[in-house]
Amino acid sequence: xxxxxxxxxxxxxxxxxxxxxxxxxxxxxxxxxxxxxxxxxxxxxxxxxxxxxxxxxxxxxxxxxxxxxxxxxxxxxxxxxxxxxxxxxxxxxxxxxxxxxxxxxxxxxxxxxxxxxxxxxxxxxxxxxxxxxxxxxxxxxxxxxxxxxxxxxxxxxxxxxxxxxxxxxxxxxxxxxxxxxxxxxxxxxxxxxxxxxxxxxxxxxxxxxxxxxxxxxxxxxxxxxx
Length: 226
Prior knowledge:
The strands form 2 sheets. This protein has a 6-stranded parallel beta sheet. A two-stranded antiparallel sheet has the order 2-3. Helix 1 packs across helix 3 (about 65-85), helix 3 (about 65-85) packs parallel to helix 5 (about 120-125) and helix 6 packs across helix 7 (about 175-185). It is built from 9 helices and 8 strands. The longest helix has 21 residues, at about 65-85. Strand 6, helix 7 and strand 7 (about 190-195) form a beta-alpha-beta unit. The protein folds into 2 domains: about 5-15 and about 90-225, HAD superfamily/HAD-like (Rossmann fold); about 20-85. About 45% of the residues lie in helices and about 15% in strands. It is of the alpha/beta class.
């Protein structure tokens, strides 16, 4: 039985028309003078901190705490602006899943496992009135590596439950190969959804427990009680 459910955000819970990537690009241009800063960077499934460090390396900018702080202060301001001006929404099945998880006889802890910094995650989810649905989470502030973030998220779930979790008592839901990889890193079960840039057929070779077009194709009860 699943006792902890961890959701990715971008491409899994919500779509934002690339607001985060566009906010990165705007800050790269405005504060670091690099107009094509995102062209060589891959965003899907990666952490904000990892992406920023790669940008600094590519452009011979010191990855100093001061530069990191300056970037993220500007980024969260720009992200909020982008989210207000660009189309976006909650992916199919997400709202029902969150409702159904709360209705299970033995309700699991519901949390976040995301490459967003915490404030970025909060801004995105508040935009779609989802932030209050989650009891815990781990973020790019906690670690630059997604596998480490997964381990931290599992540990925080254990702290709330007051007991250790076996891997098969944890369910990760995500839309990229890196979501599948970090789930396997902590021994968790995983649902791969095709609501991001990858289709289920692209994710099936990585052997998730389920690969579906969206969360309408699988029930919370089936996934958590089986």
